Amino acid sequence: MKTFVLPFGHFSLLPAFMFFIVLSSSCQTLTGNRQGFNNVDAEQFRTLIDNKGNILLDVRTPQEFAEGHIAGAINIDYESSTFTNEISKLDTSQTYNVYCRSGKRSAAASGIMHEHGFNHLNNLTGGILGWKEKGFAVTTE
Fold first, then answer.
1. Are 128 and 45 in contact (CB under 8 A)?
2. Number of C-beta neighbours around residue 55 at 10 A
3. Which domain holds residue 5?
């Protein structure tokens, strides 16, 4: 094993290399899909919701939903005290495309859903604001 003498003592390459490997793998874990859902942009989200087997879930308040939502969405308010109870009624084997206003509540909601056994979740980054910015339609019906 090659050893180097530095001003603060002897230095071996093997422990330094092992430290680098451990540090690299932990960084990869932090940036991977550890939250249990996929973050997708508006264009990817549009493709996903075109799949009729997927469920579109708006986690904004009922008032926000009434002001405009993506056609076909169901509304379960993430901020409601009944959110966990409401998602427990859903089929965990389905794929859910989840959105809110900006992407923050839907990311939090997706995390909670994952904790409750949902494994097929897509979060719209940028939320409905990003959706509308791309010129995609919303409805009030």
1. no
2. 17
3. 1-32
Strand ranges (DSSP E) for 54-138? 55-58, 74-75, 96-99, 121-124
Q: Are 97 and 49 in contact (CB under 8 A)?
A: yes
- 104-133 per-position pLDDT tens digit: 999 999 999 999 999 999 999 999 999 999
> Does position 141 have pLDDT exceeding 70, yes or no?
yes
Unique residue bearing structure tokens 């509304």: 75
Cβ 4 vs Cβ 14: under 8 Å: no
Integer CA distances (angstroms), 86 to 44, 57, 59, 118, in order:
27, 12, 11, 13
pLDDT of residue 7: 58
Same domain, residue pair 28 and 43: no
Neighbouring residues of 13: CB distance < 8 A, sequence distance ≥ 6: 1, 2, 4
Average pLDDT over residues 49-61: 94
Examine the domain organization and report whether 6 and 61 are in the same domain: no
